Amino acid sequence: MTPPPARRRRTGANGAVPAHNLPRRGAVRRAQAITTYGVGSLIAVDHESFVVSGLDEADRSWRADEAPRIHERRLARLLGVDHFRLPPASDDSSKDGLRVRRFPVMHSCPECRELQRHRDFDPPAGRSVCGECGVDLVPSRFVVACEAGHLGEFPYREWVHRSTDRDVRTSGQCGGRLRLRSSGRTSSLRSILVSCTCGQVPEVSMEGSFRRNALKDLGLTCRGHRPWLGTSAPAEDCGLPLRTLQRGSSTVWQPVLKSALSIPPWSDGRADPLAGHWKALRRYDRREHIEIYLAGAFPEGCPVPLDEVMTLLEAEREEDPDGDSTADSDHHYRALRNKEYERLRSGNDERALSRDEQFVCETPRGDRSVLGPLGVTGPMLVKKLREVRALKAFTRLADPESTTEAKEMPLSDSPLRWLPAMEVRGEGVFLRLDEDRLDAWEKAPAVAARVERMRSAHQRVLEQRAGDPSRVVPSPATPRMVLLHTLAHVLIDEWSLEAGYPAAALRERLYAADDMAGVLVYTATSDSAGSLGGLVAQGEPDVLDRTIRSAVHRAEWCSSDPLCMESEVSGAGGTNLAACHACVMLPETSCEHNNILLDRALLVGTPDRPDLGYFAHLVDH
User: Fold this and answer.
1) Bridge pairing between strands 83-85 and 418-433
2) At 376, which helix (H) or strand (E)?
């Protein structure tokens, strides 16, 4: 990780600072550059604070020539890019790291109690200490942000002068210097005191600064600052309300991640051999016309055989029938999931595959009929899989219960043909629910009424989060979705106990729609939990039978019962019912839906309504 250039630093002939001359501060894991410390996020290094720089051409967060390319055609088409790049790694061959900029700029000195910009302390080059006192400076604990993704400094001067009759926007003309101290009486905001040496205002505390309308009442709105793009990036015209946030709050930065499994015919991880030709190829239906086009487009010979071209073209048309590569199209993402579901159902036998194949899915050897009484069918052993997770954008002030992607902030101020991404190789178990039994269960009035409570609560959250009614997305809550989601959670919990996998090393991938009813549980961190067949072994029918029965019996009770089971609402916004951290909630890295839309009553029923549970026949009521 590399901070921005200091004021005094050697430059090259063109005025640019050589990347290898920039000092390094701290280190993060490669995956964290996607999930935790991506572009626009705040990162603390020792006693200093920085914001990760953007990916613009003039200010790339890392050097493109050191960022290895990875390819996943299906996901690239969805996101409207050509390829993806890995974040820089901390190894001897890497000359560069993540570029960062100092933020917030406002600092305080615990010795002299001055509160001002970092450079005004006149610190020695490369250090963050007070030029007079010699003690470490403390970055501002508070920042401001708006729902459009902008980020700014907390307006200390306006806050301390709010009691005067003058306009707070002219408070900087008082000529005074700001001071910050802590009374030490409590750890609350009331003990953090700000004053101005102008003598026109009394010392005030930070109490009340986190109210939703605290800054709006002062007449302050967002000015569109984007510090991760540097001072050269012009501020955007925004005007949205500002919210005060703790610098380390999770709501300051939340990633918008998109992922896809590599499935045939794109499961060898190769670059797209026909990049730039798909639009033209889609115009032709007949094989001989396509052959004529390829002969003109590739005078030296097409890089792939004609039969393979036809296979790739068929896959393109199936997932993108209209030829429209709009990144926000829900249709594209549904098509992507549908093709994964079909491939997981049909399998991909290893005996007929090359060594480069990264998707191996086989039928278990055992008798799958033993799962019939459970209402489970079609388990498949995914012995080899590859998932690509891309950082599409980020949001601020995102409600933790919301799955909407409204008001996303792009990673660059200019269009990019690539996005940061990670690839994960692992293994998994795929299973489906019996369609006939599931259809009868989800049509029961009691089941539909219970899920409707969650769906209505979640829809309200989405509407409040979106602000603009035209941008509200429908809640995905349906009986089969909530059932599959909860089943995936109890299976992950069970395998973490029985198979030795930490819950954070397993991840769910749900396939819940009118024509889909499956769940894939796979290793999400193959480097730490391994991919040596331990999870695949759990998919054999006799083992899976025992696992499901044990998981269902374990879900019968919770240490928070009867409160957990009998609760009318659970979780912020009422988006859960019988679900809490003592029973079915998982580490956030394992869940696709932020631990919402969960209800173990749909697995085992309730004491009053045992028929609510899909697996009620396995439970002794």
Assistant:
1) parallel
2) strand 376-395
* Conformation bin of residue 467: beta by default, left when phi > 0, alpha when psi is -120 to 50: left
Give the integer Cα–Cα distance in Å for 161 and 346: 68
| Contact status, residue 336 vs residue 78, Cβ threshold 8 Å | yes
Query: For residues 256 and 149, is the Cβ–Cβ distance under 8 A?
Result: no
| Contact (CB, 8 A) for 43 and 25 | no
Given a cut of 60, whether residue 70 has pLDDT beyond it is: yes
Distance of alpha carbon 571 from alpha carbon 556, whole angstroms: 20
Q: Rounded to an integer, what is the distance from CA 389 to the centroid of its chain? A: 9
Residues 256, 395 contacting (CB under 8 angstroms): yes
CA 449 to chain centre: 31
DSSP state for residue 568 in the 8-state scheme: S
Residue 14 has what pLDDT?
39
For residue 61, give both structure tokens. Answer: 């967060």
CA 112 to CA 522: how far, in whole Å?
Answer: 55
The larger pLDDT score, comparing residue 271 to residue 178, is at 178
List the structure tokens of 549.
């029965």
Residue by residue, DSSP assigns 167-228 as: -GGGGGGG---EEEEE--S-SSGGGEEEEETTSSS--EESTTTTSTTTTGGGT-------GG
Q: What is the pLDDT of residues 411-453, one digit of tens each?
A: 888 888 899 999 888 899 999 999 999 999 999 999 999 999 9
- Partnered with residue 49 across adjacent β-strands are 44
Residue 515, CA atoms < 13 Å, CB-side half-sphere: 9
Alpha carbon distance 211, 264 (integer Å): 52
Sheet of strand 178-182: strand arrangement: 138-139, 106-108, 114-117, 178-182, 192-196, 204-205
Write the CB contacts of 546 (distance below 8 Å, at least 6 apart in sequence): none
Which residues neighbour 174 within 8 Å (Cβ) at sequence distance 6 or greater?
A: 161, 196, 198, 200
